[in-house]
Amino acid sequence: MSTYYLMPLIFVLGILGIAFEEQIKVNKTATALLTCVLLWFILLVDTDIAATTQGFADFLRHAPAEEAAHDVSDYLSLKLTEHLGDVSGTLFFVLCSMVLVNTIDNYGGFKSVAKIVETTNKRRLLWRVAFASFLFSAFLDNLAAAIVIIAVLRRLVPDRTDRMKYACLSIIACNAGGSWSPIGDVTTLLLWNSGRITPYYQIFHLIIPSLVNMLVATTLTHFLLFKKGARLRALPDVPEDDVADILPQSARITVFLLGIASLMLVPIWQTFFDVPAFMGVIFGLVLVWIYTELMFSRHKKRLRSATSLRMTELLHSADLTTIFYFLGILMSVSALIEGGQLAAASTHVTELIPSTGLLAGIIGVLSAMLDNVALVAAVLGMYPVDASGALTPFVVNGSFWVFLAYCAVTGGSLLIIGSATGVTVMGLEGVSFGYYFKRFSAFALAGYLAGALVYQLQSLIF
Predict the structure, then answer these.
(1) I want to staple 174 with a disulfide (CB 3.0 to 4.6 A). Which of 18, 124, 137, 339 is the partner?
(2) pTM, 2 dp
(3) Tell me: the pLDDT tens digits for 269-291?
(4) In angstroms, rounded to a whole number, what is the distance separating the alpha carbons of residues 8 and 130?
(5) How many Å apart are CA 109 and CA 291, to the nearest integer?
(6) How far apart are the first and last CA of the chain?
């Protein structure tokens, strides 16, 4: 078999290995990294693959005279470095945002959320959880928001059967909230960093469809899964042993405000000052780090037993497994870009599915079964930004990119394995695939279709 066709086959097998990691007993991060290494190995060894691509032709055309004689190996080495640089910006943003959220949580910043949503009325709690999930996922990201919401639910809902219902609904609400924010999901971050959409355009055009998605799913859950007037059993008042309790109250509030502000200001720095997203979030992390170091220095005796809350310790808890997973996926896609397979695939896909709206909708459904990061990264490689000046769906803020942001994120709610949010909740609360599919997949589908319809109607107006 030609290595040209072997590369996409390896990629597809890698995606399937990721989707069925529980069955094959191999962690998806290992599969993603292996896929990345194999694809780049083939590309670097069989240089004839890249030699026929438009990218290499453009490189030779624009290279200075003294570099025109460079062979395809030099070109691939240069492109490998370029792709790694682009991917690193996304990875550092994800890593630093994870550390910030973890720091806020360890400093007790999210305890107030439990007090805000607390109520013994089951239906009322459902709506509070839904709106909290929707908003937190936009300001933090949907994965971090889900973790926070599960922690809150464990404080408020003693019955596991009830808690599983709230947890499943939070998956839909978190993904809906993550779709209208440039930092709400890794896929929206990719679309923003790659120059496909701008933050405020995305927010303006997707906040209503995303809200409709959440409202439809929550309404169905409200009437079909919770009885009118049903109340929660009160939790026993058990004192908590939390190391963060010895921190000054002012320190907890300051860390919370600094962390949240750092994440919320990232789009502003990028839009008005052209500061890359990862630099904005690193700046916020540094501010929190400096503040906490000064705090520990000022209260040395009082905080002697709280050294686990120092940033040097909290950095050890960063989820490097997720970071390496994204590295493997994104670099795998970059190999297919340089091999020319994605450019060829875009031609065939366009012939089969001429409607870009339908294409985005299908990608959303596929993201329920396959990883949405890999799907969106592949689509970015297939369809470059249209810089011709013509009004097409592929220009910056084109209808395809905006609708793709909605579909790729919210489509992951159709199955519990369709998003990192769902997989995380699945692990934290032990929700089975069958439980979610039987009770919530139809609600998620109704919300997905309702939001998509609203977006299409809205696009006729704006």
Answers:
(1) 137
(2) 0.80
(3) 877 788 888 898 899 999 999 99
(4) 40
(5) 15
(6) 49
